[in-house]
Amino acid sequence: MKLYINGEFVDAEDKGTFDNISPFTNEKINSIASGQAADIDKAVQSAKKAFKGEWGNLKQAERLEYVYKIGDLIEQHTDEIALLESLDTGLPIAQTRKQVSRSANNFRFYADTVKSQMYGEVYQVDDEFINYTVHSAVGVAGLITPWNAPFMLETWKIAPALATGNTVILKPAEWSPLTANRMAEIIDQAGLPDGVFNIVHGFGETAGDALVKHPDVQLISFTGETTTGSTIMKNGADALKRFSMELGGKSPIIVFEDADLDRALDAATWGIFSFNGERCTANSRLYLHESIANEFIEKLKERVWNIKVGDPLEDDTQVGPLIKTEHYNNVKNYLKIAEEEGCEIISGDIPTELSRGNYVAPTILLNASNEMRVVQEEIFGPVIAVMTFKEEAEVIEKANDVRYGLAGYVWTNDIKRGHRVAHAIESGMLWVNSQNVRDLRTPFGGSKDSGIGREGGHYAFEFYTEQKIIHVAIGDHHIPQFGK
Ligand code: NAD
Are strands 285-289 and 219-223 parallel, antiparallel or unpaired? Predict the structure, then answer.
């Protein structure tokens, strides 16, 4: 599979490739062109040319026509893209289908949002000045994405980048490259001018790093691990990049004694075991009020034993294999650590016919406590740590006692307490009596070590556009007359 540069599918300059491996069989799926600094430079030159040329000169409505068209084409190919995504990542097909639908929506949503909400502000100063702001595209945007929901997360960046008028170089995660090229084919079919959208596959340390350091790339939007985010910020510092950082999480779900326990159980189970547990906003720390803990844990165990672990391409599979053997080993190692730290481990079974895949059974860690590594560190697999609490203040303190601050979930039927706890939890996003339901208009992002900046709605304009203030004198204001 090739790179996509300047409207053409091409090999890497040095003809290098790497193997793409199936999470289900651990066999090779295909070879991927492995981009290096020379390929990044080629892509940047073509993106720069397109920005200064045809793309940059389009009227907004003309540009957005393309963005709508991309959304329509994705929708027409939903099943096929979902199939590729599941093959590549091990995510269950029922879940990738929804992610692809959401991806089509991301394009329509951003075209709508640019049309309706990308306007400036006017500041009148008596009868002397009218000052107003305008938005303009920044230039070449470098988008670096992870493997956990690759297609959807790519569109969540490509759509606002293009809709606001930038040109794009996407560096997809090396563990999940397949659907990115389907995206390139769709963009090609939509007829975007050459160079507006480019893909350079390759490793983070080579292709990714060259993108981050390239002097003609003004923006880096990154989603991935917190440690990678800080490396990228260091490496981009000399070129004074503008960064958007969507990083790791270790999000709490708090269930009070007065909550609707059945719904809280549904949400807690889905929130950790969907997307194979490889979910940035997963509720990986469960805090139960001690009066309901036993009952809740018994029901959670039943869920874990009943979850359908299976072939990601089967419709009724709920949990599939993890992306890669390295990641599987990492998650397994955390289960060893949990044991050493004194947790009781409850997990489901993996059917023997799945033994070639990177399967980790849905797992509950009981008797967990806040100082444990398995409670502090992001495991990024189908593993939930369970703890109990007595008092509201105590659980708020425990929930906040981590480096991350991406999401949080509170379950209570006491309206005052719901709001109060939501305000007190240190996270960018909080849901009360709800699973992670996204409203695309709202700000998406993390606090603390979970991120910098916000994506979503008009918040993305802050990152993807330059805001200029224009001061216009409408009267004869005072001008000092030096040397007159
Ligand atoms: P990762 O940090 O290993 O890799 C992400 C991307 O960065 C990949 O494309 C990789 O090639 C690239 N990369 C790695 N090193 C680089 C370097 N030095 N320079 C430039 N690029 C480099 O992350 P991952 O393992 O692919 O994804 C999982 C992580 O992503 C988890 O921590 C998860 O929480 C996080 N995540 C966060 C969000 C969010 O919205 N906050 C969403 C999804 C995933």
Answer: unpaired
Question: Is 66 exposed, middle or buried, given 0-12, 13-18 or 19+ CB atoms closer than 10 A?
Answer: buried
Tokens of 285: 């720390």
Predicted local distance difference test score (pLDDT) of residue 135? 97
Q: In this structure, are residues 29 and 178 in contact, taking their beta carbons and an 8 Å threshold?
A: yes
Residues with Cβ < 8 Å from 326, sequence gap 6 or more?
Answer: none
Among residues 368, 380, 383, the alpha carbon closest in space to that of 287 is found at 368
Tell me the pLDDT tens digit for each residue of 8-26: 999 999 999 999 999 999 9
Report pLDDT for 349.
87
pLDDT category of residue 189 using cuts at 50, 70 and 90: very high
Cβ atoms of 164 and 136 closer than 8 Å: no
Give the up-direction half-sphere exposure of residue 221: CA atoms within 13 A in the CB hemisphere.
Answer: 31
Residue 246 known to be catalytic: yes
Residues 336/313, Cβ–Cβ less than 8 Å? no
128-156 residue pLDDT tens:
999 999 999 999 999 999 999 999 999 99
Q: Please state the atom number of ligand 1 nearest to the C-alpha of residue 444.
A: 40
Residue nearest ligand 1's atom 11 by CA: 204
- The CA-based angle 56-60-63, given to 5 degrees, is 70
Helices 78-89 and 178-190, packing angle to 10 deg: 160
Using the mean position of ligand 1's atoms as its centre, give its distance from the Cα of residue 223 in Å. Answer: 5
Strand partners, 136: 466
Nearest of 295, 286, 249 to residue 398 by alpha carbon: 286
| Confidence band of 348 (pLDDT split at 50, 70, 90) | confident
Q: Which residue has the tokens 């560190």?
A: 377
Average pLDDT over residues 297-301: 98
Is 124 strand, coil or helix? strand
Q: Known catalytic residue: 298?
A: no
- Ligand 1 geometric centre to CA of 244 (Å): 12
pLDDT for res 268: 98
Contact criterion met (CB below 8 Å) for 407 and 433: no
Strands 383-389 and 363-366: parallel
Cα 129 to ligand 1 centre (Å): 47
